[in-house]
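Bit of a strange request maybe. I'm writing a small parser for structure token strings and I need a real example to test against, not something I typed by hand. Could someone generate the tokens for this chain?
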Amino acid sequence: MLGAIIGDVIGSRFELNNTHEIDFELFSEDCSFTDDTVLTVAISKALVYETEFAIKIKEYALKY
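Reply from user aminoacidic:
Good idea to test on real output. This should exercise your parser:
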């Protein structure tokens, strides 16, 4: 899960501006978490606390 979140943050600045470059700074001021991170955390919380996925997804989506 940590790897997915780190990848989301690093790739966030390329979300609407794709690149094929491989030589770029991993973290910059343009990086931020996205809805992918929010929903990943929501799913993990649903699994840990044995809650319905839809409940946690709605809770986290509305919060962030």
